Amino acid sequence: MKGLIIKDIFALRQQGKILLALLVFYAVYSVVFKNLSMLAAIIVLLCVMLPITTMAYDEKSKWDKYALSMPIQRKTIVLGKYLVAIMAEFLGVVAVGVLGGFIVLFTGEMAIKELIMMTLVIAGIGLLFLALILPILFKFGVEKARLIMLLVLFIPSMLVMMLPQLGLEPPSTQTLRFLGYLSPLAAVSIFFLSIKISVCIYNKKEF
Asked: Where are the transmembrane segments (predicted)?
């Protein structure tokens, strides 16, 4: 397991440089335009894309066929990808918390409690996105699943944007706060279910 995670980390070295540059850019953007929510969304989105990138590298190099020729259980390979995903998500949440804390101190854009709630919501959304997309990637591969990933990402966003046009009232502040604290717990539950589904898919897959 440890070796699988180290392999993915080495594969992401170049992506890490790009990620750092984007973090600096959006941090400056958030300070100038006082838009912390944009920074939070971008950071978590970039971090959840990291495990998808490792799967793209594996698919291109046909690594799975090589790995299965060694004494590695299929379940271990799947769990390795999920652990990389959790590490990437944790990195994103920490970055949001640290950078967001500094930006709040300098700009006073929001209260610390609001920052904590926003971080919890973003963490829950990131885990939920990974839980939905990873089984699809294991089933179809990265290349074939690109359109599905876009739909998973943009359809909920479009539905939220269309609420006022449909005559529906947006959720109240109390409802949003409740969902904010509940989202990580719900996302974790769905995440464990996602692992079971992915293991089942990968056990039946032929390379």
From this structure: 16-32, 38-57, 78-103, 115-138, 147-166, 178-202
Count: domains in the chain:
1
- Distance CA(28)–CA(32), nearest Å, equals 6
CA-wise closest residue to 124 among 185, 172, 175, 174: 185
Distance of CA 189 to the CA centre of its chain: 15
Tens-digit pLDDT string for the chain (207 aa): 777 888 887 777 767 777 777 777 777 777 677 666 777 777 777 777 788 888 888 888 888 888 888 888 999 999 999 988 888 878 877 877 777 777 777 766 666 677 677 777 777 777 888 888 899 889 888 877 777 777 766 666 666 556 556 665 555 556 656 666 666 677 778 888 999 999 999 998 887
Q: What is the CA radius of gyration of the chain?
A: 18
Tokens 């700009």 sit at which residue?
107
Answer whether residue 159 is part of any domain. no
User: Does residue 160 fall inside a structural domain?
Assistant: no
Structure tokens at 46: 């970039």
Within the chain, how many helices (H) and strands (E) appear? 8, 0
Helix (H, G, I), strand (E, B) or coil at 109: coil
Range of the domain at 29: 2-151+169-204
Judge contact between 134 and 196, C-beta under 8 A.
Answer: no
Amino acid at 158: M
Q: Give the Cα separation of 55 and 52 in Å (integer).
A: 5
